[in-house]
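Quick one, tokens below. Sequence please?
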């Protein structure tokens, strides 16, 4: 069960990418991928980040683990700021912060065996003999549903679900405090998704890890997460306990997301919200509330002023002028 102790804190995180509009000599433009995202992840908690493709979810995850440097803002792991640390100072903290990649095919070195892939983190952070490391690696493979007979196999000899289990074994090898799960089941068949999700839930209960779970499948999010944060065009628009969010979403964008989920019972009443138009370009995001160009309830103030995240109920925050009173 999640505690109130924060293990990861993100403060006003920003990421802008410089791109050229067209051709080698085209004018430079700025992609506002993430603009001022802040949240706290507690010990043994699963915090999900959801939103449409291009909302900035994966960029947030990549900045947290250090694969993408932030333009502004800060990332704090167990009370220590890590986004400005160099490679040498960051190395001891790497074992506490791991990543499960979205693509189980591209994230594994095809030239390495399963034993080497999972054993590499142990070699970096644990002092033990080669035999001891092999035994520990075999135990890790068994824990994720693979056996010692897979130690000498290469990634191309595994199925997609087995590869993702291999990636999970690599991520938990050092007993991390925080695991960033970047859409860990989106590339898998539906039948395999359930198995991997249940494995992640069991591992969290066993080792007390905290998950930052990045996803677009709301059904998966509802099943695994304690809290859910909703992103739209680089900004957080709502964050709350998952049950409260799914029961009574407050932001118009969150309501539209919930309304888009197909229900198995066609006779069951559901929330409907008419949202028209395409997601605006992150190169030229709309002023004010970024959702106002598609929101059926937009007011004049929505077009000029950025709504801050406000507490609208205990543990429930939303960024919407319609909820400000």
């Amino acid at each position: 069960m999640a505690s109130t102790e924060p293990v990861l804190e993100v403060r006003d995180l920003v990421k802008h990418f410089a791109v050229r509009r067209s051709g080698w000599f085209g004018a430079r433009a700025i992609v506002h991928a993430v603009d001022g995202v802040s949240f706290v992840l507690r010990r043994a908690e699963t915090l999900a980040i959801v939103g449409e493709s291009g909302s900035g979810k994966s960029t947030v995850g990549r900045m947290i683990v250090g694969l993408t440097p932030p333009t502004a803002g800060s990332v704090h792991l167990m009370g220590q700021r890590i986004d400005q640390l160099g490679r040498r100072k960051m190395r001891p903290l790497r074992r506490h912060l791991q990543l499960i990649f979205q693509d189980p095919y591209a994230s594994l070195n095809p030239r390495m065996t399963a034993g080497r892939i999972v054993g590499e983190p142990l070699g970096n952070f644990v002092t033990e003999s080669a035999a001891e490391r092999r035994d520990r690696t075999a135990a890790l493979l068994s824990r994720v549903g693979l056996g010692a007979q897979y130690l000498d196999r290469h990634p191309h000899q595994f199925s997609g679900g087995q590869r993702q289990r291999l990636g999970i074994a690599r991520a938990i090898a050092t007993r991390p405090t925080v695991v960033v799960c970047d859409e860990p089941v989106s590339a898998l068949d539906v039948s395999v998704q359930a198995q991997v999700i249940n494995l992640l839930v069991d591992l969290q209960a066993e080792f007390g890890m905290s998950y930052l779970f990045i996803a677009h499948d709301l059904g998966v999010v509802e099943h695994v997460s304690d809290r859910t944060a909703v992103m739209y065009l680089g900004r957080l628009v709502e964050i709350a306990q998952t049950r409260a969010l799914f029961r009574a979403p407050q932001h118009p964008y969150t309501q539209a997301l919930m309304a888009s989920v197909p229900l198995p019972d066609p006779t069951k009443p559901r929330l409907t919200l008419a949202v028209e138009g395409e997601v605006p370009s992150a190169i030229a995001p709309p002023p004010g509330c970024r959702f106002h160009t598609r929101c059926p309830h937009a007011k004049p103030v929505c077009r000029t002023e950025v709504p801050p995240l406000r507490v609208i109920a205990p543990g429930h925050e939303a960024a919407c002028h319609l909820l400000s009173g």
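Residues 249-325 form one domain. The longest helix spans residues 190-207.
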